[in-house]
Design goal:
Blueprint lengths: L1 H8 L1 H9 L4 H29 L4 H28 L10 H19 L7 H31 L6 H26 L5 H28 L8 H22 L17 H16 L5 H33 L10 H13 L7 E10 L2 H7 L1 H18 L5 E6 L2 E9 L2 H14 L4 E3 L2 E3 L2 E9 L6 H17 L5 E3 L6 H13 L3 E10 L6 E11 L3 E3 L5 H7 L2 H16 L10 E7 L1 H4 L4 H12 L6 E6 H5 L3 H12 L3 E7 L6 H6 L4 E4 L11 H16 L3 E4 L5 H9 L4 E2 L8 E2 H9 L11
Parallel strand pairs: 6-7, 9-11, 11-12, 12-13, 13-14, 14-15, 15-16
Antiparallel strand pairs: 1-3, 1-6, 2-3, 4-5, 8-9, 8-16, 8-17, 9-10
Keywords: Membrane, Transmembrane, Transmembrane helix
Pfam families: EAL (PF00563), GGDEF (PF00990)
Organism: Actinoplanes awajinensis subsp. mycoplanecinus
């Protein structure tokens, strides 16, 4: 209210300009009265900004200098107001005039020190040259219009001459500071823009006031339009300080002004030659006029050449040299511009991330020339499919991106993605070779929740890798379920929030015996998606490392529940728990298992750890040592899903394995297909040759159970005996004697 209220007082100046109301003394007094609150409030808010604004150190230094200028302007306005109530005509220059003049150097220093984009030494040198060109042009104009005529005023007091000439000279420095600031792309853009506008308006007002007096004999009194410009400048400075106070203490509102002020040096050259031509308008074309005309033509050609060179340099800087597509830098720049556009419900923008499938073998087998031919063909296909206004670029290697701004519907982006998939399936002819590639494409849409370029690229990348996992050669639109980082966090939170549950499935003795064994199987009771089977999240947990806390929870919870289970005859239960490859590589695995057994009281000699074949295929010395230590503790080691991976028979002898679990794929059909029966029997005989116990998974019929027992497999597991069930249900089943079987762990 104070800011806008004091600004409203400046409306009195507009009324004076329009109506001409009041005498000279009244106008001057009212003018100072309405200016005083604005300048004093600007100084007060500037002080508050420095003291409590939380400014970064480099920006705070600049605002301290600006505050000195604001304080000097406030003091000048108060001095002028006091002088209005004293009789007589004030001398020139007065104290207030000197204070106004003293404020300008501090204003210049503050503007120059305001933080902006980081630049290299070469860029800073170019910036200095551009700024000096502009200032040189402005200097010529001010010399001709102000400084020169001031120095030639006959009979004037030298003090008056010096002071009068100092005003345009300091204004010239202010122009230099403003131009430098604009070309440097300042941070905290809105506040700096308002401050720059205030200084620009003041320079225009100063120059108008002086030029009118020197060249036209017009002396503007308070209440005339130059004073309206000074009022506007004072209010803009107040708004600048006020806006900076309301910004985040960092650099909120940062904006880039790429190329917006690049024409200024050339404009200054044009201004300089126009001024020379104006001054020499009375000269003959021979010789002076012709020389000026020739200089203008030559300089114009140099400017055209320079602009063309800059344009070509820009093109080379943002173009991939092999394909001619946009490079990573331009894609990032255009994507940032897309993100800055306001969101509209009737317009949809998207990013397509494209990765070529089976490209590396082409490079390895046929050489880089063949690979380059494929990349050029991909670029041609991209250009042929995308619309006018879309952008295709190469990010590097065999990875491409397409930006689709302002589409009427999301279906348009999907149709473009599908056409790209089909176009990129076209074989590439290279000499006598026919090279075939496909592409996996991830699509991410920009909406009001998209934070930055990194996020949207990550979304498209997640969708693209989901395509690769699903078989490659098609496209997929990003959904939150594909966000690996988000789902990883969700998985880890599931452990903390108690969303994981265990089900248990019995393992029975096919030939009769004592005791009982069960396998612990984890489920995710998702609050939104319901009960999730392991296939929905275990692979992701393996990729992200969330399997470590999940595996530890499963082991602890399974031991806690199973420690009290027994059959009616008092026989204890064997417990089988899956252990991932990532867990086995953890140095603290043995200590973790010891801690869990000690905490739950579950006996080590009734625990079996099930490992996948990926663990035993390439065991290092540390892995072998850990497994051996666990085996010495009495814990059984089982190989799960044996036969589904690559054969690793030699490791069955070197590793401390005690049990093989034959995958369900070898059990299915043994009761109807003699060949399947023979393969399963061979696996059982192989395990027995290594003195390993054998468990057959996936037994679903009594005939399959009979066949496995007949070929020498002692233990079986599957829906024929019991489905996985919660712990309390299995405990009741055990207590009732519904399951009675034996699994020997060593």
């Amino acid at each position: 209210m104070a800011v806008w209220g004091s600004g409203a007082l400046l409306g009195v100046v507009l009324v004076q300009v329009v109506t001409g109301w009041g005498s000279e003394v009244q106008i001057r007094t009212i003018n100072d009265l309405v200016f005083a609150p604005v300048t004093l409030l600007t100084a007060a808010l500037g002080l508050r900004l420095i003291v409590k604004g939380g400014l970064p150190r480099n920006e705070r230094r600049a605002w301290i200098l600006l505050e000195v200028a604001f304080a000097a302007q406030g003091a000048a306005r108060m001095t002028s107001l006091v002088r209005d109530f004293q009789p007589g005509v004030p001398a020139y220059p007065s104290v207030s005039d000197c204070l106004y003049l003293a404020a300008i150097p501090f204003m210049v220093a503050g503007l120059v020190l305001l933080p902006a984009d980081r630049r290299s030494q070469a860029e800073r040198f170019k910036l200095l040259i551009d700024s000096l060109i502009i200032v040189a042009g402005a200097c010529m104009a001010l010399w001709y219009l102000e400084i020169g005529p001031i120095l030639q005023i006959p009979g004037a007091d030298p003090m008056v001459i010096a002071f009068s000439a100092a005003v345009p000279i300091l204004d010239l420095l202010l122009v230099f500071a403003l131009i430098t600031l604009l070309l440097r792309r300042p941070k905290a853009g809105v506040a700096v823009g308002l401050l720059g506008a205030a200084m620009a308006v003041n320079v225009v007002a100063d120059s108008t006031y002086t030029i009118a007096y020197l060249h036209f004999g017009v002396f503007f009194q308070p209440g005339s339009w130059p004073f309206l410009l000074w009022a506007a400048g004072a209010f803009l400075a107040l708004l600048a300080v006020h806006h900076r106070m309301r910004q985040n203490a960092a650099t909120s509102g940062e904006r880039r002004s790429r190329g917006r002020f690049g024409w200024l040096p050339y404009g200054a050259v044009v201004l300089a030659y126009a001024l020379i031509a104006f001054v020499a308008r009375d000269q003959s074309m021979n010789p002076l006029g012709g020389m000026i005309l020739g200089g203008i033509v030559i300089t114009s050609l140099v400017i055209v050449r320079q602009m063309f060179a800059q344009r070509e340099n820009r093109r080379l800087a943002v173009t991939d040299p092999l394909t001619g597509l946009s490079n990573r830098a331009l894609i990032a720049e255009l994507l940032s511009e897309m993100l800055r556009q306001p969101h509209r419900d009737d317009r949809h923008s998207a990013v397509l991330l494209i990765d070529l499938d089976r490209f590396k073998p082409i490079n390895d087998v046929y050489g880089h020339e063949a690979g380059d031919a494929v990349l050029k063909a991909v670029a041609t296909a991209l250009r042929a499919v995308i619309r006018t206004g879309d952008t295709a670029g190469r990010l590097g290697g065999d990875e491409f991106a397409v930006l689709l701004p302002g589409m009427p519907t999301r279906a348009v982006a999907e149709s473009i993605a599908q056409r790209l998939v089909e176009a990129l399936r076209t074989p590439v002819i290279f000499g006598d070779l026919l090279l075939g590639v496909e592409a996996s494409i991830g699509v991410a849409f920009l909406d009001e929740t998209t934070a930055d370029t990194a996020q949207v690229i990550a979304h498209a990348d997640a969708a693209m890798y989901a395509v690769k996992r699903a078989g490659r050669g098609h496209y997929r639109v990003y959904t939150p379920e594909l966000d690996t980082r988000a789902r990883d966090a969700e998985l880890r939170d599931a452990v903390e929030n108690g969303e994981l549950v265990l089900h248990f499935q019995p393992v029975v003795n096919l030939v009769g015996g004592d005791g009982i064994a069960v396998e612990a199987l984890v489920r995710w009771n998702h609050p939104v998606r319901g009960l999730q089977m392991p296939g929905a999240f275990i692979e992701l947990a393996e990729e992200t490392g969330a399997i470590i806390p999940i595996g530890e929870w499963v082991l602890r919870e399974a031991c806690r529940q199973a420690v009290g289970w027994s059959t009616p005859t008092g026989e204890k239960v064997w417990l089988s728990v899956n252990v991932s490859a990532r867990q086995v590589t953890q140095a603290g695995l043995v200590d973790t298992i010891r801690e869990v057994l000690a905490e739950t009281g579950f006996p080590a000699d009734r625990l079996v750890l099930e490992l996948t074949e990926s663990v035993i295929l390439q065991p290092d010395e540390q892995t072998v040592a850990r497994l051996s230590t666990l085996r010495e503790m009495g814990i059984g080691i089982s190989v799960d899903d044996f036969g589904t991976g690559y054969a690793a028979l030699s490791y069955l002898r070197t590793l401390p394995v005690s049990i093989l679990k034959i995958d369900r794929s070898f059990v299915d059909g043994i009761d109807t297909d003699p060949d399947t029966y023979a393969v399963a029997e061979a696996l059982v005989r192989l395990a027995r040759a290594y003195r390993l116990h054998v468990v057959a998974e996936g037994i679903e019929t009594a005939e399959q159970a009979r066949c496995m027992a007949e070929m020498g497999c002692t233990f079986g597991q599957g829906y024929h005996f019991a489905r996985p069930m919660p712990g309390p249900a299995l405990a009741d089943l055990l207590a009732s004697g519904g399951v009675g079987s034996q699994m020997v762990a060593h």
